[in-house]
Amino acid sequence: MQQLYLGLMAATAIILLLGLLSRPLKRYGLAAPFLALLGGVVLGPQLLGLLQPDGWGHPQLLLEKAAQLSLAIGLMSVALRLPAGYVAKHWRSLLVLVGLVLPLMCLCAALPAYWLFDLSPLLALLIGAVVCPTDPIVATSIVTGEIAERDLDEPLRHLISAESGLNDGLALPLVMLPLLLLGLPPLEAGRQWLVMVVFWEIGGAVLFGLLLGWLAGRLLRLAEGRHFIERPSFMSYTVALSLLALAAAELLHTDGVVAVFVAGLAFDRMVGGKERAEEERVQAAMDQFFTLPIFMLLGVLLPWGQWLALGWPAVALVVAVLLLRRLPALLVLRPLLPALRLRRDLLFAGWFGPIGIAALLYALLASERSGEPLVWQLGSLLICASVIVHGLSATPLTRLYGRCRRRG
């Protein structure tokens, strides 16, 4: 019980501290997810030892469920932040980013893992699939705030947010295909992948999310029209909607991540979420309340000893994945991406494809189902490297982008 209260005290103290110092921290390039991760490392067993995960029962299960909840809240916030009809208007660029860039990112991350660790092709593909989705939580810390709103073009900010929201759930087929092939004959694995994963888990989640988001928006407009609801209730309504979509989708054995984001898009189209500026700010504060403790918890649970045992190939993998996982794919497919015609947009989007909570969920899932501890070791290493590197580079590169834009 003492560990529970210590963890609660640490998480809330970090949220309060980062909230009080949000502006100067952002000015000096210190992103909130990075600082929360650092706080977990400092408080964890490797340094101060105040938080001891050995007495928590099943800490990885706790991390998985908490990450799932925080991702749902974050995805709803991203969906509400996008202009109504954004996905329909920019479907060509988003289709290329999800349908072509995402698989190429999987390959670009899998190849160095295959060469450096002498893995089987399927295991290397599994690791590449785990870290290929870009993260909406870390991306939000990059594309929101005073500096981002001043220096980044609004279409670029929306594109990064929309892509991260879409590919979090749509990376599931890339993760499940090597997982199924590792345990089943190819024909049976292909059948289960097509029927259960693509058609049911993804397709069913899209249909369910559309229906739930439309129904929730319709009911909200009806309630407001008849003065049944007070305006401040909007934030609690959207939080409840995100958790309802996640829980119901999981009970239906569909992809809860996809269902939440699609429900958010459908809901936003119905109610015009962009007109509710004050509620958006409250929603952003709620995001921090749910997401920052996840990075702190991850910092407590990092497998330092296992990382050190991996040796120099682990360092080489981090460098290769951060540099080559995303930018080469965007360069190759640039003619098909009308939203990234400008070179500065292409380079910024090519660098900022952070690895975060979605990859954390997939790493835990793949490690458990495959029985390969290396999946969790490499996945957690790449997640932490991305949170640190992308978090520290966000502010200076955003300012550089702004200077280039003003000169242009």
Major β-sheet, in short? none
Determine the fraction of residues in helical runs and give it as a percent range: over 70%
The number of helical runs is 21
Structural class computed from helices and strand pairing: mainly alpha
Instruction: Work out the strand percent.
Output: under 5%
Number of strands: 0
How is the secondary structure organized here?
Blueprint: H1 2-20, H2 22-27, H3 32-43, H4 59-81, H5 86-89, H6 91-117, H7 121-130, H8 136-143, H9 146-151, H10 154-170, H11 172-183, H12 186-225, H13 234-251, H14 256-271, H15 277-301, H16 304-310, H17 312-324, H18 327-332, H19 343-351, H20 357-370, H21 373-407
Q: Explain this structure to me?
A:
By secondary structure, the chain is an all-alpha fold. The protein has one domain (66-149, 179-407): Up-down Bundle (Na+/H+ antiporter like fold). 80% of the residues lie in helices and 0% in strands. The protein contains 21 helices and no strands. Helix 17 (312-324) packs across helix 21 (373-407). The longest helix has 40 residues, at 186-225. The radius of gyration is 20 Å and the shape is globular.
Annotation keywords:
408 residues, mainly alpha, Na+/H+ antiporter like fold, 21 helices
Produce a short descriptive summary.
This protein is mainly α and about 400 residues long. About 80% of the residues lie in helices and about 0% in strands. The protein has helices at about 1-20, 20-25, 30-45, 60-80, 85-90, 90-115, 120-130, 135-145, 145-150, 155-170, 170-185, 185-225, 235-250, 255-270, 275-300, 305-310, 310-325, 325-330, 345-350, 355-370, 375-405.
